[in-house]
Amino acid sequence: MTILVTGGAGFIGSNFVLDWLAQSDETVVNLDALTYAGNLQNLASLQGDERHRFVRGDITDRELLAQLFQTHRPRAVLHFAAESHVDRSILGPGAFIKTNVDGSFALLEAARLHWLGLEGDAKPTFRFLHISTDEVYGSLAPDAPAFNESHPYQPNSPYSASKAASDHLARAWFHTYGLPVLTTNCSNNYGPFHFPEKLIPLMIVNALAGKPLPIYGDGQQVRDWLYVKDHCSAIRTVLAGGRVGETYNVGGWNEMTNRSIVQTICALLDEMKPAAAGPYERLVTHVKDRPGHDRRYAIDARKIQRELGWRPAESFETGIRKTVRWYLDNAAWVANVQSGGYRDWVAANYEQR
Prior knowledge:
globular; alpha/beta; 44% helix; Rossmann fold; three-stranded mixed beta sheet; 16% strand
């Protein structure tokens, strides 16, 4: 038996592949284009493991997709591959349309043709699991109910708009063609192997380097935070028992402001690796807010708990402590991902604010 994972060298995808192979002998075919955030070093522990078959390629390459389905005959597709950073989508939206929309379309079509050719039990048990985000739902008022699965789509950035489009394509391929699709919409993930452009790893890495800790606007934007390994367990749960055609919201039940996140990280670093110059919070710098910045996200994850019995294992307090410790223990990984291209992007995005 084999599963096909797209984007399996990225942050969430690589954590999923590692967790999957820690619990199963089922082969993973891992397709990743290795763009700036795709890093095979994340999967170094799998070197020589025959259960992990890495293929470098783009999900928009239809010929490659057809070849992979024909050769490996996967029983399921787990679609992680996506451009995922809002700031990058503002600076260069074209890449997000190409990967998130065109790529998802190509993958759905390749999966549909594969599924149509399956026989016996293989056809009704095939699954296409599309991994998406809570950002497709837009922004919530401070006292508004959390996003549930029937909340209207109101994307406000090129990134969230491109993910919303891919969600709609996945839904249409189920309703029009019968392709057995499942969709998950998750809240903000954090944990090991997170590329240091997102809030939590950026704050950790900058603090340790004695650099400014840039916070957009007043820092009162609220997000729900989900430890990445909890997200991986939710995906396994949905793949195993989710109802075809359904969407499941996956959240950590941890609403926090960006400002409080940064304060928590500073306090943990003061405890674990105190700086000679004084508390890390001295580095906090408020910068001009980004365009169209959503004020609040919150996930109502009661459906996945009610139907499938899933709840996150980590609180934010336990998950963020594990995350800070991981970055302290993996300085070589951080140094390797901080390429010249990464530094150029950080300079372009933050120094003008």
